[in-house]
Amino acid sequence: MRIVMMGTGTFAEPTFEALLGAFGGDVVGLVTQPERDAGNKRGSTRQTGKGMGAIAAAASVPVAQPESINTPDGLAQLREMRPDLLVVAAYGQILSKDVLSTPARGTINVHASLLPKYRGAAPVAYAILGGETQTGVTIIKVTPGLDSGDMILQESLNIAPDDTTGTLEAKLAALGAKMAVEAVRKYQSAGPVEGAKQDPALVTKAPKIKKEFGLIDWTKPAEYIERFVRAMQPWPTAYTFLHRPGKEPMRVIVASTGSSLAVGMPSWSPDQPSGSLLGNLSFGDQRIPLLVRCRPWERLIVTELQPAGKKKMTAEEFLRGYPIVDGMRFGPEVLA
User: Among 45, 62, 42, which residue's Cα sits nearest to residue 9?
Assistant: First the structure.
């Protein structure tokens, strides 16, 4: 059976390597997105590790990198590979009916969620943001609908309290690689591969995350912001703007927060807005370098920050460079 891999980035790399290890010369091609560069806005924005192209080169596997797989040129490159089965993992493009009709045995996708939850481009980030304690991987048959195909395999894993999108995606990538091999073995048999229908009543969406989505809303609950900071790592990162009297707003990445929320702390006065700062606090044995006001009566410990043009630093280092003064606060670039 001729297998063609379609994928881009660190989530796809373990699946590609697992297929090569399990099926060797039956993996006859790789379709991956064009290399990213500053002038190519259509290139992949996914994180890269070894690189899909490098893995393919080491295994002497032909590579196609069309701008769009759905164009006549992209289709021609795919058809030259004569796939029996397409295995997709984080490819980054919606596949047309023409693409899906090319492989003789069909197309399967390694999706990083427990479908039908979190259909879309960013299931890992939305699982963290949604406060889930579990997520997983689902292998589905690819259909024209978004992540709506029949489920061939599904396995779950726990989300750790300190997981970011990056750390959780790495765990899911390893799980997905194992499951992809198991799914392909099902297709090596002569009979049809059956799958379970998804319950449309349980569908939730995980649309693509854009750079501006990382702006922190300090009027949200502290628990939500703590999850938001983790969900935005490693991209686009959670950020805010530091407002100081007499100075221009400065963009600041909030890299990490405390593992627990600061409760039972002194309250701000009613006229102090969300995003207000308190620093160098001591409560018994607990020392808190930086505390930020969130939804009324809630506060969040911030532990690491990165001011614009600077390296990431601890809250203590941040406050040495930007000591708290009256009227200093975090918020959007233009305050309401």
Answer: 45
